[in-house]
Design goal:
Blueprint: H1 36-46, H2 51-62, E1 66-72, E2 75-80, E3 88-94, H3 99-111, H4 113-120, H5 129-134, E4 147-151, H6 161-176, H7 179-184, H8 189-203, H9 222-226, E5 235-237, H10 246-251, H11 263-283, E6 291-293
Antiparallel strand pairs: 1-2, 2-3, 3-4, 5-6
């Protein structure tokens, strides 16, 4: 199979054959991608000077011209319906990171509790690229040379609109599951989560076991309990969680959920509202992170 060169070529514009049941981008106008990591994926591609080509692919993505795609470590294969009856075959390859680089990056991710917490809850931490930078690699492609593509269409330019359409469908898939981006770079969700848990357990200090002391017997009475002054030192810290609806995200979408809405996103909104109301009730002014004595 001959790989297409990375240069601008001419093309004859034509209308694609409309299809039913294709993968259609949710975005109807403007940019594609809701999360920072999907937007980063698109901005990286645009930085390679592909803006015009990507724009044509965006129309294909919104029109549902991408029929299917399959993502495996380092490779995406897809079929895109163009202007002829037979769909075009698309291949996108990004070189996976080495085992050594992944081990180092995972160790760096595990060092920060917030990284591990967000990833185990199915979210991509905002500054996750720091972990990869410490490992001497990049999570996202750094240049157009990092991506090899091929399409069975006659368009000699790279990316053609069919390849570009797949790029945008991937962006929205990354929104849904950020671990797909890791998988593209060569590491599955299962391996990452296992490594994170192992590294977190390994970093936790182990207290030497002490011989259990026999608890002192203290007589109980309502008067002595409320008048002891013990509650004066009791305080709580009421604040929003680092990862909204973490348990819900860890458990995943339940089998009974038959709505087209994203279950995790819908539950996250509810949990954020509950947290906000709890903070307002506790402090009266919506402030968080302060200690409240009882």
């Amino acid at each position: 199979m001959a790989w297409r060169d990375n240069f601008w070529g001419g093309y004859t514009d034509s209308k694609p054959i409309k299809v039913d049941g294709g993968i259609k981008a949710k975005s109807k106008r403007g940019g594609i991608g809701d999360t920072w990591w999907s937007k980063r994926w698109v901005s990286v591609l645009e930085s390679f000077g592909w803006s015009n080509r990507l724009e044509r692919g965006r129309r294909y993505a919104r029109g549902g011209q991408v029929l299917d795609f399959k993502l495996t470590p380092g490779k995406i294969t897809a079929h895109v319906q163009g202007s002829v009856s037979k769909p075009y075959s698309v291949i996108i390859e990004i070189k996976p990171l080495t085992e050594e680089a992944w081990t180092k990056a995972t160790e760096e991710m595990a060092r920060k509790a917030i990284f591990a917490a967000k990833l185990l809850a199915g979210e991509m931490p905002q500054n996750i690229e720091e972990a990869f930078k410490a490992a001497g690699v990049s999570l996202f492609p750094e240049s157009s040379k990092d991506i090899k593509t091929d399409c069975s269409c006659p368009d000699s330019a790279n990316p053609c609109k069919h390849i570009a359409a797949v790029y945008y469908i991937l962006a929205e898939e990354f929104d849904r599951d950020p671990f797909m981006l890791f998988n593209l770079r060569g590491r599955t969700k299962e391996r990452i989560t296992v490594s994170l848990r192992q590294n977190r357990v390994g970093d936790e200090p182990h207290e030497p076991q002490k011989e259990a002391e026999k608890p002192k017997e203290i007589p109980l009475s309502a008067d002595s309990f409320w008048g002891s002054g013990e509650l004066e030192s009791f305080s709580v810290n009421i604040s929003s969680p680092d990862v909204p609806a973490a348990i819900i995200k860890r458990l995943g979408t339940p089998q009974f959920w038959d709505s087209k809405e994203d279950f995790n996103k819908k539950m996250e909104k509810y949990y954020e509202e509950i947290s906000r109301k709890a903070i307002e009730t506790a402090y009266g002014d919506g402030e968080s992170g302060k200690k409240k004595k009882k």
